[in-house]
Amino acid sequence: MKVVVPVKRTPDTAGEKVIDADSLTVDREAGEAVLCPVNEFSIEEAVRLKEKHDAEVTVLVVGPEEAQSTVRKALSYGLDAGLQITDDAIAGSDSLGTARVIAAALESTEFDLVVFGGQSTDARTSLVPAAVAELLGLPSLTYTRYLEVDGETITVHREHEEGWDVVTASLPAVVSVVEAINEPRYPSFKGIMAAKSKPLETKSLADLGVDADEVGAGAASATMYEFAPRPPKEAGTVIEDDGSGLAAAQLADWLVEKKFV
Amino acid sequence: MSEMLVLIDHSEDGPRKVSLQMLTKARELAEITGDTVAAVWFGPGAADAAATLGAYGAGKLYHWDSPDAYGYVTLPQVEALEYLIDTSEADTLLFASSNHVKDVASRLAIRMEAGVITDVSGIELAEDGRWVATKEVFGGDMITKSTFAEGKLSFLGVSSNAFPAEQSGGAAPELVAIDIELTEEAKAAQVVSVEKVAGADRPDIGEAAVVVAGGRGLGSEDGFQLMEQLADMIGAGVGASRAATDAGWYPHRYQIGQTGRTISPTLYLGSGISGAIQHRAGMQTSQNIVAINKDGEAPIFQIADFGVVGDLYKVVPKLVEELESRK
After folding, report:
1. Degrees (nearest 5) of the Cα angle B195, B93, B136?
2. Lowest mean pLDDT: which of B194-203, B262-271, B316-325?
C-alpha cells in the first residue's frame, strides 16, 4: 500500500513567534522552525504501516526551500521519499488554500491512505485534513486514536468528547491522528544518515496544474488583518504553605470570593 | 434581512453549554443586523430542547431527526447544512469550534466556497457589514482579528466559554422539519458503534467552566483520584499535563497542551504542574488560573491569579475539607 504523510513546518512553541506586519503571515524563519510536534504521531503511525503492511511512505510538505530540512527530519524516522511543493504564490494561503495545494499534490501521486497530524501547534484550526478529503471526494477519518487496515478496508476509532466512534470505510481515505494513537520512537542514527540520500522531489503549482489565483493571500476567504501579543498578566497572589496544608483555607476563601464554589 | 444559523452541538442529555453561549451571542448580533436566529438540530431530541433553545434566542428551529445524521462520518451534516443554506436566506453559520464540528464546517466551506474562521472568542460587526472575529493563535501568545472576503458565506467556529449564556425569555421557536436524501458519497464512512469511556459523566475539559489538572508532581496515578475527588466536589472536568499522560497516570485524551487539548475555562486549577510552555499553550487563555506546586520558581506562578507554594498532598486534601465545610 502507498501512504502519504503531510507534515508542517511550525515555529517552535518555546521560541519567538513573529507575524510579519506587511504580509500579515507567520514569519516562519524568525524563531526556530521545527517539524510540527503532532507529526511525530502521524509519522510513527506510518512507520507502523510500513512494518505491518510493507507500506511505501512519502512525506509531503508545502513550504519554501528551507522546509526541505523538515522533510529530511521526517524521513529520518524511516520513511521512503519526500515531496515538496514550493511556489511563491502559495504564501498567505488560508487553511482552505493550503488544502487545495495538498489535494493537488496528492492527485499528482498514487496513494491509498493519507495520514495527517490532528492539529498543528501554530494555527490549530484542524481544518486542513477534512478540506483535503472534501476536495478529493474521500472519507475524512479524523482525530483517530486507533487505526487498522485490512485489505481495502480501514477501521478507525474517532475520538470525541464522550469516547470514540468505531468507523469503517474503504480505501483510499484521509485520516488524522491524536496523541493517544501511539508512542512515537526517536529516529535512529542509521535513519538520520539514510534520510540524507532519500529521494526528494520538488514541484511547483504549475507542475500540479494549480492556477496561482486559486491560492495565496488573494484567494483567501478569511484573512487576519490585525494582531497583538497577549498582554502580560498582572501578578497574582502567591502564598506559601507552612507544610501543614493550612494555606488551603485561604485558597478556599479566594474561590468562594470569586464565586467558583 | 437574513438568517443566522446556529448549529447546535448536543449530547443525548441536550444542548451543550457552548450551544447556549452561541445562541446568546447570535441573538445579540441579530439585534444589530435585524437578522433572525435559527437553530439547527441534527438527530433526535429537537422537540424536547425547543423551549430551552428559544429561551436563549432561537426564533426558529430547523431539525433533521434521521439517525443518518450521525450514522456516517461528517458528510450527512454537511449535506443537510448545504440544503438549508441553499433554501434559506442564511449567510452566516455559527458552530462549536470542537473537533468533529470543525470537520463539518471545513468540508461545507470547500463545497460552498465559504470562509471559515475557527476558535473564535469575539465577534463584532464591521461598518461594511462583514463580521470581524477575534481569535488567539500560537497557544494564546497572539491575539488576532480576522474578517471574511467580500460576499462570502461566513462560518464562525465559536470557542467554549468565550461568551456567557443568558436567557432572554424568548418563546419556543417555530419548528421546521427538514428531510434530505443522502448521496452515496455521504455514506462512505459508516459509524459502526459508539464507545463511551468511564468518566464521561464528568464535564468534558473542552467545555467545562472549571478544570482541575494534575501533572508530574502528583508522582503516581493515585494522585488523580485526589484530582477527581476535588473535581467532583466543584463540578469540574479533569485534565493532565503531558508528563502525567506519558507516564501512563491518566489517559491521553485528557492531555492539555500543544499536542493535546486547548482549554479556556473560567477557572483552571493545576496541581503539581510546573507550567512548561508546551502546557501553557493549551491553557493560558483560562480566565482564572490557580496553581499548587512545591517549587516556588515554577513558571506556572507567573500566570497564576492565585498560587500556593506547598506540598499538594497536604494542600489539596485540606482544600477538599475546606470546600466541604463551606458548602
Report:
1. 80
2. B194-203
pLDDT, tens digit, 9 for 90 and up, residues B220-266: 999 999 999 999 999 999 999 999 999 999 999 999 998 899 999 99
State how far the Cα of B262 lies from the Cα of B257, in Å rounded to an integer.
6
- The answer to whether residue B277 neighbours chain A at the CB level (below 8 Å) is yes
Q: How far is B213 from chain A (nearest CA, A)?
A: 16
Residue of B nearest to A10 (CA): B138
Q: How far is CA B38 from CA B8, B99, B175, B206, B293, in A?
A: 10, 22, 10, 25, 47
**For testing contact with chain B, the best of A32, A143, A159, A179 (most B CBs within 10 A):** A179
A139, A161, A250 ranked by CB distance to B189: nearest = A139
Residues pairing with B94 in the sheet: B6, B156
Residues of chain B found within 8 Å of residue A164, distances taken between Cβ atoms: 194-195, 197
pTM above 0.95, yes or no: no
Residue A232 is predicted with a pLDDT of 86
Structural contact between residues A261 and B326, judged by C-beta atoms closer than 8 angstroms: yes
Query: CA nearest A71: which of A205, A200, A207, A203?
Result: A200
C-alpha cell at A120: 498543528
Considering CB atoms only, which of B193, B305, B318 is closest to A166? Answer: B193
Contact call for A240 and B309, based on CB within 8 A: yes
Beta strands of chain B (E only): which ranges? 3-7, 10-11, 14-15, 36-42, 60-64, 90-96, 115-125, 131-137, 142-148, 154-158, 174-177, 190-196, 210-214, 237-240, 267-271, 289-293, 306-309
Tens of pLDDT, residues A151-179? 999 999 999 988 999 999 999 999 999 99
Of B99, B302, B326, the CB nearest to A256: B326
ipTM value of the model?
A: 0.94
